[in-house]
Amino acid sequence: MSAQDGLRPPGAGATVALVLAFCLLFLGGIAILVFSTDHPFSYFSRDPAIELGASPLVGVLSHAGVLLAWGAATVCAFAGALVARARDLRHAAPLLLAALGTAYLALDDLFLFHDDIYPQELGLDQDLVIVLYAVAAIAYLAAYRDFFREHEWPLLALALAALGASLLLDLVNVVYTSRIERWLEESSKFVGLALLAAYLVRLSTHMLLEAYAVVSRRDAPVEAAAPVDAPVS
Predict the structure, then answer these.
(1) Is the dihedral of CA 127, 182, 201, 110 positive or negative?
(2) Which of 45, 124, 199, 216 has the smallest number of Cβ neighbours within 10 A?
(3) How far is the C-alpha of 28 from the C-alpha of 33, rounded, in Å?
(4) Is the separation of the CB atoms in 210 and 92 below 8 Å?
């Protein structure tokens, strides 16, 4: 495998097949929701603000955070897939797990997993869910601590500090007593997501460059040894 083959994305045909499979799966899930609830298709397909008659600016800060997290997860997943193909899954694991965790974070924020679904539908305490999130993040960072020490860890630390502050405020302020508490929590979360997105994009770039360098060295032709002059008699 050459360096170019190792870092080249899959062909267009495979990409189209993957996209169509995802769309069919997602649309099938929407169909299940339509036929299992009293809501029409437009309830699930149209913009929430339009469907509910609200202002288009409702939730704009939350939506921006979701876009940041989802975009970073997409970049990270794509880079991880290329690194796994060029090198191996072990080297790509930190990227792929970061993509998975960040995508879940975006979905949690979009569908209110820990705020509504887990407590209301599953009976799980919201504080317990937040603690479990924190434990999972700490376990992941501990498992790959040597990796993160080599890749701009101060930027990651800033992102985690902002997100951690938001989680802490969420734990202690279940019912807000002033506007400043809401401002602090939501602003900390947005700043944390923005820093995390920046970190993951930079990390993806560095990992791709490292993978390309490794594969290039592996595929470089071995120089022929210089001939040894015959001894003069």
Answers:
(1) positive
(2) 45
(3) 9
(4) no
